[in-house]
Amino acid sequence: MAAAFSCFRRRLWHGRMLGSNGSNQNYRWIGKSAIRSIIDLRFKINEISAGALTPEPGLPGVCWYKMKQLALILACLISMDTLACRFNVRDVGFVDLGSEPYRLFIFVPDDTPTSEIELLESTAYATYLDSNVKATVLNSKDALKSKAARFIPKELKTIQAVLVSPDGSQSLPVNLAEEGKPLAVTAWDGLESVFDSKRRNSVLSKVYEHYGVILIVEGKNAEENQRIGNLANRVVKSISGQMDKLEKEIREPPVVE
């Protein structure tokens, strides 16, 4: 549903731009109304209790109106699912990063040049722009006044960083400086090491040529892991048989990682 909603929102925006004169206002009104209704449905649909749509005494008209409105929204969602399946991740992308990010505290000595601090800030911003990691550059004085106080290194003679879990229960040192190498190089390498992994690189190597990559994160329940794996394989088989119907040519079908 999230993919369909994202695709539909893009199409509504594109459609509004294609209008002219007064028609722009029509596209804008239709787009905003539909999106508001869909957002409201996505947040409330799981809260509808059994019999909630049963007409109340004295209010049959209100219930019937709500039922028609719900039917219209569901019809839109069904049609959007058909539209969304014609695109791959290059056209429609979404991700839930969660509400609680990881924190990367970058501690710098008090005598660190302003140019190096600005370099660290800009590099961290670019590295974690679309991630769930939030980086902050702090000297010892500022760190003592913040949540980073308990993670300050005992000897802060060089630039050091600490990655902290969302709940603050776990931490991991991250090396950003290396003697004999420029900070512009070591900072990039160190910051990227936070989210770098063999599995991530494997996914990236496949995502450009394939319709998509299904990443399965296994749990402790072996039967559930098997069920999810079988489900993923069925999805791959289903989509593979429809690759020739896509608007854009994609060489390979989805793959399970």
Explain what you see.
It is a single chain. The protein has 257 residues and is α/β, with parallel strands linked by helices. It folds into three domains: 2-84, no CATH class; 102-196, Glutaredoxin (3-Layer(aba) Sandwich), CATH 3.40.30; 199-256, no CATH class. The chain is 47% helix and 11% strand. It has helices at 2-18, 23-44, 60-84, 114-127, 140-144, 183-192, 198-207, 222-240, and strands at residues 102-108, 133-139, 160-164, 171-174, 213-214, 255-256. The strands form two sheets. The protein has a four-stranded mixed beta sheet. A two-stranded parallel sheet has the order 5-6. β1 (102-108), α4 (114-127) and β2 form a beta-alpha-beta unit. α1 packs antiparallel against α2 (23-44), α1 crosses α3 and α4 packs parallel to α6. It is elongated and about 65 Å long.
Short description:
The protein has eight helices and six strands. The protein has 257 residues and is α/β, with parallel strands linked by helices. It folds into three domains: 83 residues, no CATH class; 95 residues, Glutaredoxin (3-Layer(aba) Sandwich), CATH 3.40.30; 58 residues, no CATH class.
Write the layout of secondary structure elements.
Layout lengths: L1 H17 L4 H22 L15 H25 L17 E7 L5 H14 L5 E7 H5 L15 E5 L6 E4 L8 H10 L5 H10 L5 E2 L7 H19 L14 E2 L1
Parallel strand pairs: 1-2, 5-6
Antiparallel strand pairs: 1-3, 3-4
Helix pairs in contact: 1-2, 1-3, 4-6
